[in-house]
Amino acid sequence: MTTTDAHTMPRTRPTLRWRVVDIVVASVLGVASGLLFLVWNVAYEPLSVPLKAALPGLQALAGGGWLFAGVLTGLIIRKPGAALYGSLLAAAVSALVGNAWGPLTLVSGLVQGLGAEIIFAIFLYSNWRLYVSVLAGMGAGLAMAINDLVYWYPGAAALFSTVYTVSALISGAVLAGVLPWLAARGLARTGALSRFASGREATTGSTRRRS
């Protein structure tokens, strides 16, 4: 093939249609995230108490532990609805096994997943850089703050609402933005995601750096 032919050939665009392997892996990620949520359900209270004592509203800094599922699933699957599916499934696992919030956990999972999903949709499911992941985490954090202020803190003072929202955004950026991005890249480098664009991209990048 000549250089001219290589430049004139149409580029293959990644399909946004779900495959069976996408459903399977997204389900595994959602269930695994839900099991991690169970750990966070126990850890949240001792973590949030000193934050709340320091300044009411700061407890949202610990809320990011429930936000990563949607972002992680979206980063790996890279298909419309992946973030929403991963977040909702993780919430369902947490609710079914048992927690203090019951069925409202599903509402949280739905809203938080939608917050991340909207960010990925804005970038047309074609940009998976760190800053997009951080924005998706912040989208989930903002969704969490709005949901919590409506359901758990109705009529809260403006100061509390502001501190809670800013804390949720920060927590979302770090715990649900940076960490899932690093986790997805680390998992891709192992070769476990070779059937996904996220895995092939990481492998190609590593090969180029070594050459």
UniProtKB/TrEMBL annotation:
The chain crosses the membrane at residues 20-40, 60-77, 82-101, 107-125, 132-153, 159-183. It comes from the Bacteria. The keyword Transmembrane applies. Signal peptide: none annotated. Keywords: Membrane, Transmembrane, Transmembrane helix. InterPro entries: ABC_thiamin-permease_prd. The keyword Membrane applies. This is Uncharacterized protein.
